[in-house]
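Its record is quoted verbatim for completeness.
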Amino acid sequence: MSHPPTSAGATNSPDDSERTRIPLGLRIVVLLLVALASSSAYLTRHCLAVASTTIQAELNLNSEDMGWVFSVFALGYLVFQIPGGVIGLRIGTRNALPLFSVLWSAITVWTSFVFSLVPLLMSRFAFGLSQAGLVPNTAQVIKDWFPSRLHGSVSAMIGVAMSVGGMATFWITGELMEKMHWRSVFQVYSLVGVAWAILFWLVFRTRPEQHPRVVVTNKPEELGVESATTASPVDSPPIWRFLTHSAILWMCIQAPFRAAGYNLFVTYFPEFLERGHGLSVKESAFYSAWPLGGVIIGGLIGGVLIDVIQKTTGNRTLSRSGLACVSLVLTTVLTVCSAFASDHLTVVVLITLGSTFSGIASPAVWAGLIDLGGKSAAIVSGTSNMIGCFAGVVFTPLVGMLVDKIKDGGTMWDGRWDMLILLHAGFYAVAAIAFSFVRIGDTPVTEMTPATVGLEEVEP
């Protein structure tokens, strides 16, 4: 039984999806495909950090220059978050995600052909634009294909996939750069995104009822599915109203600080280990993967904890923002301790333990944004992710300036690598404070009436 295509944003109640009889195997395939998209994206994104010192030497750049390179990626990623989500709503996630994947793969090839700073900046800005649609459209896929009781676990799997891609990138790139030029490595990585795009488009459908393996037992109207042409906006608040709702606002405030904490792992941590502890490129790449491994373990633990706490207490605030707040406080404490460690192994172990707790917070963020966004999960998630990009746009170049002062000597910062780690801990501390103000109710903010959208949804 076939139905006309619907908008990616036109969703039925997530728990109604059982009435469409989605086979478990198909849900697993969808989860794997979306997870592979995240891994592929991070493969092409984080290879630049491993190659950073090599690129600096070849293109005659310094750490501040590389800070601006990382920054322009974040700027492109920032400005296209909401447009990327809107594109997914318009053309469907089945078309949007492969389109973005092919684009970022082509731009990775472009990056491999640059020979000076300006073309490198241009290519990374375009790369940021192309990857911006990944998070909002992934959130929409989760909303459309999985019931709310699984949002914690599914979000954890996506977060884990991102970190797996990042960790694998550090290890694989470190190994490949012993044998290949960095330009060739980038070109090989671009093929992964193209292959994934083809596979995803052939297997996936934007809405479950469009898939040939899904049996629809009722008409779309009986399932509560609103098509793009029938949805009524009368009772929906304006987008600016729900984006300024207290819970969403604080979720957006935490985003750049939590992102800034994570960004150290994928920007300057390899250089920190090389220059601050005298490791080789291969050794620094190996140890730089450890914190990302911690994020993976934390993500798996967090996904389980979210669902267990939610099932036990029925409290979305406790299972989402409460868990994130406690986890990031522990991350802060462990990171501060690592700043005073004398050898590289102790530093890496403590930071990895801290990153494990930060990983526990990641699926809580995903689940919280999906709960708050409801049918507009792509827009709400995209907005939070967009604001998180300010970490890359603003903080990363400033951190690059600090790194140059630390390594160049002649200033009060000479050799003070502990200051880089303490700054990293401070970012996580601010994020933890922001989470303490987030309250998540049972009704998505986007589905509240205009009269109540400004009120807090506080659970007992």
Notes: The chain has one domain: 24-215+236-447. DSSP finds 18 helices and no strands in the chain. Residues 1-18, 220-236, 451-460 have pLDDT under 50 and may be disordered. Residues 24-215+236-447 form a domain with the Growth Hormone; Chain: A; fold (CATH 1.20.1250.20).
